[in-house]
């Protein structure tokens, strides 16, 4: 059956990819349904990397929908799996989503902690595109904290990474 073994991994990946398209179009309900199916498949076939990625996506979508507590549940599980797997890039991505969720909830301190760990990891890994994205998010926190000079410095660093 396609939902088992390698075919299940492929199906879950395809469902996740389709969900991302729906999420970009703000069709969150459709995206969540597809990601829930991908999550079930990943759990069934034991695909921990796929599961962590799917949970991260679910967390991000729930944050976009304003469901911050629910988002944090998915993001916490994603982070835990990625730490078990030693997936440093995945950890950094999940921390960025956790930072965004904390920011939306108004917890700027926790947001900054997430962004700081994400930034440090991405610098070590040399992942310039994701680092630039997280730095822009971090700059927004500095602005909200009334630290325009720090925000400008971080924004300049992000801009230099995209040149």
The third-level CATH topology of the largest domain is Serine Threonine Protein Phosphatase 5, Tetratricopeptide repeat
Rounded to the nearest angstrom, the distance between the terminal CA atoms is 47 Å
Largest sheet: none
Helix content: over 70%
- Give the overall average pLDDT: 95
Structural class: mainly alpha
CATH architecture level-2 label of the largest domain = Alpha Horseshoe
- The name of the CATH superfamily of the largest domain reads Tetratricopeptide repeat domain
Shape: globular
List the uncertain runs. Answer: 1-5
Rounded to an integer in angstroms, the radius of gyration calculated over CA atoms is 16 Å
Instruction: Count the E strands.
Output: 0
Per DSSP, the total helix count is 8
**Percent strand:** under 5%
Order of H and E elements: HHHHHHHH
- What is the CATH class of the largest domain? Mainly Alpha
